[in-house]
Amino acid sequence: MSNIVLVKSGNKRIRCISREAADFKVKAKDAVRGVYIAKKAPYGYIISIEGSYIIGRNALRHVVELDEDLFSKWMRGEEISLDLTEKGIYIVKYGPIFAGSGYYDGEILRNLIPKSRTVED
Length: 121
Fold this sequence. Notes:
By secondary structure, the protein is an alpha+beta fold. The protein has three helices and nine strands, in the order ββαββαβαββββ.
């Protein structure tokens, strides 16, 4: 991850770009560069699906691995009852697939994937 730069985008968003792209001069005042990876929320950072791929490969904590049935529910936008060790934001994963993040409140992993990115039956 040493070739990656995190930049603040807008009020509460974080984007990820390469060092080369960060050094590149852009003339447009409001140009958006990089991939959106996270947004600040009162309870932590909501990590996007793309961000979960970038961050999740190296994450040592707060990663939850789902089985096929729970992953299917997750991708439909459902919330999942789990027994995790502590409250907070968790990166969701199924095998090698990272699927965004959720907020665990002590009983339920709340799905933070936008409805427009969920799967319909």
